[in-house]
Amino acid sequence: MCVRACDWSHRRSLDSASAHLYPLRVGKRVLVIEDEPGYQDLMRFVLGGYELSVYGSVEEAERDHPDGDFDLVISDINLAGASGFDFLQRWIDKGRAEKIPFILWSSNNSDETRQKAMEMGAAGFITKPFKTEAVQKMVETLLSTAPS
């Protein structure tokens, strides 16, 4: 199931508040694939102001967004079903990776995992747990330098 930051009924209009705080984020679509609810909530907070689509699996995201119409993708590597590596490969095979940055993240900080992610074509790699400022800076940098 997709949960968008602006759909939280217990919060005041997050989109309008975020637009004031983060004007450069307005209109930028970010796909987050993460199966842990705690990290899903954290990403909603960290990436407030972006139009977020948050899913628990690759399959759900691909079902709801077959066109891949996003400005940036962030995916966990270790997921039930298709992995983040599998999703990145599909993204590359469809010719999307050249235009749309793809960040992989994992609690596995081994050199092999990081190297595989970068060799496959990931634009970035994040180790969980992470510093929120580092994630924000990576996302902002990739979105500002991505081809339009």
What distinguishing features does this structure have?
148 residues, alpha/beta, Rossmann fold, 5-stranded parallel sheet, 5 strands, globular, disordered N terminus
Topology:
Blueprint: H1 14-21, E1 29-33, H2 37-46, E2 51-55, H3 58-64, E3 72-76, H4 84-93, E4 102-106, H5 111-120, E5 124-127, H6 132-145
Parallel strand pairs: 1-2, 1-3, 3-4, 4-5
Task: Describe the protein in words.
The protein has a single domain (5-145), classed as Rossmann fold (3-Layer(aba) Sandwich). It contains six helices and five strands. The protein is globular. It has 148 residues and is α/β, with parallel strands linked by helices. Strands 2-1-3-4-5 form a five-stranded parallel sheet, sandwiched between helices. Residues 1-23 have low confidence and may be disordered.
- Give the N-terminus to C-terminus distance in angstroms: 29 Å
Mean pLDDT score: 84
State the low-pLDDT regions, or none.
Answer: 1-23
CATH architecture label:
3-Layer(aba) Sandwich
CATH fold naming: Rossmann fold
* Strand count: 5
Question: SSE string, helix = H, strand = E?
Answer: HEHEHEHEHEH
**Largest beta-sheet characterization:** 5 strands, parallel
CATH class: Alpha Beta
Our count of helices gives 6
State the assembly state of the protein chains.
single chain
CATH homologous superfamily caption: Response regulator
Radius of gyration: 14 Å
The number of distinct structural domains comes to 1
